[in-house]
Amino acid sequence: MQSKDMCEVTIVHEEIVQSIKKKLPDVTKVAQIFKALADETRLKIAYALTIEEELCVCDVSEVIGSSTATASHHLRFLRELSLAKSRRKGKLVYYSLADHHVNELVKIAYEHAVEKGEESGEYS
Fold it and tell me: Any residues with CB less than 8 A from the CB of 102 and at least 6 apart, and which?
């Protein structure tokens, strides 16, 4: 049985493959970023931080509907991967996205999902 998403014959374009292999960077850290954001709760937190630049742990827990311990765990995970940063103000700890790259990554991913959803009729 033939598949429409596979080549019918195997022909490797060796020059192209070797050129790409030479230029391909180590993507381990990039994969870690996407793994972190693949979790719906952490992605929801990151998206919330694109809406409001800074949120305390208590506010994040309310946004995601969890305990402050759970919110803190997710925020700490994002911070450890350099996706978020934190600062203490008195007895509260506030989190924000690490930089504009993370902000744009989250927004672009959401926009892409919405566009693809609209094309498939999912969001109509």
Answer: 46, 83, 84
Angle subtended by helix axes 100-119 and 28-38, to nearest 10: 60
Edge-to-edge strands of the sheet including 84-89? 55-56, 92-97, 84-89
Distances (CA, A) of 69 to 34, 57, 74, 93, 94: 23, 9, 9, 12, 14
**Which pair of structure tokens corresponds to residue 77?**
């995970």
And the tokens for 84? 């978020």
Q: What is the pTM of this model?
A: 0.84
Q: What residues contact 70, with CB distance under 8 A and at least 6 apart?
A: 41, 61, 64
Q: In angstroms, rounded to a whole number, what is the distance separating the alpha carbons of residues 16 and 49?
A: 41
| Per-residue pLDDT tens digits for 4-63 | 888 888 989 999 999 999 999 999 999 999 999 999 999 999 999 999 999 999 999 999
Q: Residue 116 in contact with residue 123, Cβ under 8 Å?
A: no
